[in-house]
Amino acid sequence: MITIDLSFWAELISVLILMVVLNSILYKPIRRLLKEREAKMAGIQAEAEKYERNAEQLVANYDQKMAEARAEGKNELEKLKGEAREEERQLMEAAQQEAEAKKNQLMSELSGQIDAAKKELEAQSEAFAVEIAQKLLGRAV
Questions:
Q1: The dihedral of CA 57, 61, 62, 63: what is its sign?
Q2: Nearest to 105 by CA among 113, 117, 92, 119
Q3: CA 19 to CA 13: how far, in whole Å?
Q4: pTM, entire model
Q5: What is the mean pLDDT of residues 35-56?
Q6: What's the rounded Cα separation, in Å, for the pair 82 and 74?
């Protein structure tokens, strides 16, 4: 059984003194360091969240600018395609007109050559007819 005598009180006082000494030397500084560490970690966490929000904003701005650049590029491409189609159409019209003019020129030259050949053949046909008649008849006509 436990008897409460002087040794009990001496042990109780020594434990209480040890608790006071340990509290002031060990526990309070450790608690203070833990609170400082917690405050520092909270500050670092807040700063990290701020940087994360900033990074998200930068990514959003980048995505928006890329979308705008793509849209602008697409519009420019469509504009250039339209200009190219118009230029192609104009070139085709010019080529067709040039081909038509060349065709008309060649047709008129050919028509002139045909007319000249007809006149020459008509002029020669009479001489040929006389010559053929002389050969067939065997005498001069």
A1: positive
A2: 113
A3: 10
A4: 0.47
A5: 96
A6: 12
